[in-house]
Amino acid sequence: MLRSIKGLKDILPQQTPQWRYMETLAHTLATQSGFSEIRIPIFESTELYARSIGGATDIVEKEMYTFPDRDGSSLTLRPEGTAGVVRAVLEHHLLESPSTRKLYYLGPMFRHERPQAGRYRQFNQFGVEAFGTEDPLMDVEVIALLWRFFNSLGLKDLTLHINSIGNSQDRENYIQEFKRFILPKLELICGNCQRRYSTNPLRILDCKVPICQEATQDAPTLFDHLSPESASHFKTVLDGLTVIDIPFSMNYRLVRGLDYYTRTTFEITTPHLGAQSTIGAGGRYDGLVALLNGPSTPAIGFAVGLERVALLLSQHLSTPHPPLFFVAGFGKDAKPMALKLLHNLRETGIRADTDYKSVNLKSLLRSADKLGASYAIILGDDEARSETAILRNMTTKAQESVNLKEISQKILSLTL
RNA sequence: GUGGGUGUAGCUCAGUUGGUUAGAGCGCCGGAUUGUGGAUCCGGAGGUCGCGGGUUCAAUUCCCGUCACUCACCCCA
């Protein structure tokens, strides 16, 4: 049997209503907060991702779907959304207009990881990016939008973890000190972390291996090494969250995996998803726009993993369909009339269907029942002769004869 | 990339201490006097027992390999 590619999955009819619900909510909430939708390509030049995400990260090192174009240039399926949005923003000068500095997107991302619960090789993200201000209240606004999205979906037991990793200078200073601290313990920590010592020392703090956690127990915290500006920025963010009653949990060890993050970083977790507990995360990236040859521009954003959210959604979250009318046409003369009726109903805006496999009234009604029709419209040769049809309520079994000329209007009044 | 678990009908799973026609429930299709559905009863279709090899008179069952799915490590949304 032909199967889908490993780590990819179909979203089946039973699930699509929930997806629409999530997506609609994302559009609504983002728009309410003044964000405009942007749609960008799902692949870009490899260089864009390599430069923005960081060469020493796992994403760039081993998780990208990279392939040569026919002219030999290297392309990559997008592993995340921010880099592409920044590229588009610069290419189309969106920073020039106040109305296009807050953007959101929805769409598939690709990472070649080993699949497991809540982790796929193609997965969908809802993300927002706000450019051009370093006001900490923008941090609050972005986090509040993320929080509100989850709340509106009825998600429970969520924790907002938050930290500040400072600006690049703060981090540089801290890294020096942290390296001095960890150097004597280098033999104790895991091999992965020994490698990180030279590539990405901050991630040692985030390591889940017990010996590493122990080794960094008394490490100096980045939090204590923030510059006065970064510290005051962070304090204003926390105060702002308090003002609007968003509970948070300080997490000094929270270091995000992408190189471009600065200052505020945050992550929302759930205890109900096994190992993949993060359902949304983000932070500031004040240096990225400049890194991609744009004007020095502060920015902040988040991304939500929609597959993970979908796993948490209650099955009841779906938009109900309008009532279905089943046209049961049978008999030589009646069938063409039934075809015309079905077509007319649909043109009138009524949800209508039939079943071409069923040939007698019994099997037609059975099909009507299986399809969940609210009404069946019976049109046999007897009815055809008098230009009428029988309108049957499938739940009450009440039925009446209706003139074919009036039936669309009659049905329209029923659906209101 | 590394480890664990699982692969029998469309779905959920039994089963065979190795033995000849492999089962159930649900679902699907049909019938119960010919133009009235759902319930009930009856019947039917549907399986290379993941794939390949080995042991054996005999393998779905035991052994080896392989693939797929899954969970976890890692990493991240």
Structural description of this entry:
- The chain folds into 2 domains: 16-167 and 227-312, Bira Bifunctional Protein, Domain 2 (BirA Bifunctional Protein, domain 2); 325-411, 3-Layer(aba) Sandwich (Rossmann fold).
- β15 and β16 (399-403) form a beta hairpin.
- The chain has 16 helices and 16 strands.
- α1 (16-32) runs antiparallel to α5 and α5 (136-152) packs parallel to α10.
- Strands 1-5-6-11-10-9-7-8 form an 8-stranded mixed β-sheet. Strands 13-12-14-15-16 form a 5-stranded mixed β-sheet, with helices on both faces. Strands 2-4-3 form a 3-stranded antiparallel β-sheet.
- The protein is an alpha+beta fold and 416 residues long.
- Helices cover 38% and strands 20% of the residues.
- The protein is elongated and about 95 Å long.
- The longest helix has 17 residues, at 16-32.
- It binds one RNA strand of 77 nucleotides through α3, β6, β10, β11 and α12.
